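> tool_call: predict_assembly(chains=two)
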Amino acid sequence: MRAMVYRGPYKIRVEEKPMPTIQHPNDAIIRVTTAAICGSDLHLYHGLMPDTRIGHTFGHEFIGVVEEVGPSVRNLTRGDRVMVPFNVYCGSCYYCARGLFSNCHNVNPNATAVGGIYGYSHTTGGYDGGQAEFVRVPFADVGPTIIPDWMDSEDAVLLTDALATGYFGAQLGDIVEGDTVVVFGAGPVGLFAAKSSWLMGAGRVIVIDHLEYRLEKARVFAQAETFNFAEYDDIIVEMKRTTDYLGADVVIDAVGAEADGSFLQQVTGTKLKLQGGSPVALNWAIDSVRKGGTVSVVGAYGPIFSAVKFGDALNKGLTLRMNQTPVKRQWPRLFEHIRNGYLKPNDIVTHRIPLEHIAEGYHMFSAKLDGCIKPLIIADPS
Amino acid sequence: MSSSTPSTPYVANKPRDIPSAEALRARIPGWGVDLDPKDRPSYPREVFDPAGTGAHWDYPEEQQGREGRERSIEHGQLTPVFGTSAPLHGVSGSIRRYAYRYGEGRAAHWLILLAGDRVDAWGAHLRSFASLRPDNPVTETGILAERRRHGIASRVGRKRVDVNHLWIDPIVVAGPWVAATAGAALAARAIARRARR
């Protein structure tokens, strides 16, 4: 089969790989139809995530058609169109039994601090991802769901991570009616977090980025106020000013490890890999939220230490909430919101790229060229 | 004493310039449909419902091929299911296996894994030169997207702060190769000089 493979930092290619096989009775093999490149894939692409091995196939956002199922699979049959949450999870461990699907303890031998994720290095279990023609999906009776007939395929692939994560990020903020919500990052997750904040009753939604074309999207897609931090000497002071020097009630970090805004943090965090990423957005979140407020973190960080301003978080009495998203818990409600027209996920898709051209897709997304917000990978043009 | 009235947060009740619920509902489709925090999908954070996940086992059957599979020493056992994307091999495999002697709380664990990653990449590049498909930095970096996807127009005059550190990327990508080539050239020259003496 054809699959994207990692060849070292900033280098990937498409090559022939052996077909994935059933390795567990509850496995399924999925023929991928559409995948996506996620902002967090860029952490792997840039060599930030420890134990990212040569030959690994990325991709934790994908949908497809069931090609084969293991002998214990009950809920899926060959030919079903399915969407697959980015979490690999067993459904029966201590954490899964409590709904913490992203923290499953039965699927990732390489680390206890993170659950299983498709195509996201051996630090999350060593599972090949969906930027390929076929992919192995463990626990087929637990994670995948048949795509409803009424659902658009592109909406389905965005539900496997970006939309679910943005919506989850807004929930972690514990928004109450009239809250001022600041979202750092106008990428896919930030846009969905901003949009979701309205559904939870926010009174103001402010999105911050330095890419003007993404801020324009935030204004149109998420009806948000926007600030370009490159235009201000100190974006924190600007956030205080615009909130009458109170600060935001809730701040969502939808940027994660590759945040811009501090040259020193960028170089030490993402170029030299001396931190688990550049925590600029997280520090700005801590400093721009009001005392007693809530910071929600859904931007991804690496497992190594980062230079976070924890003293400010303590002294301000903040609530810090974060997790990888338990995707399937979000789906029933998000299905309703899409069906009711409150959310139209594929409005943020900007590029549709054949699998064979994925190296240029990664560079375009990484370098933020051509107005790129969300690139999809078309594995099966038919 | 100041003549102006102190504003929030210097007084308790802040007059905030927030539109009414009716105005927001009229402007934003779906505004407030998830208003009740207790009626949101991830509330409460933990809900004990093992029967609701789709799992029909108390403990999953164990996947085959468990011998030699590396695992965190913070795990009490090898997990019943695991990925098989790229098994450990060669020098990088030995480095990574050594890293797994350290717990996840130790910087050594992660830094040694990163060292293994770099050795893995260099080894793969060298091996590729002895294969029918050597690594091609032009196609594999996707750098041609700079021309096809308007690299200059996407950056110039856009006030993008990432332009400040753009120059570092080629050094990160090509620097180790330039340094290794220069080192090899110096070593070859030294050997040649010694042989001439």
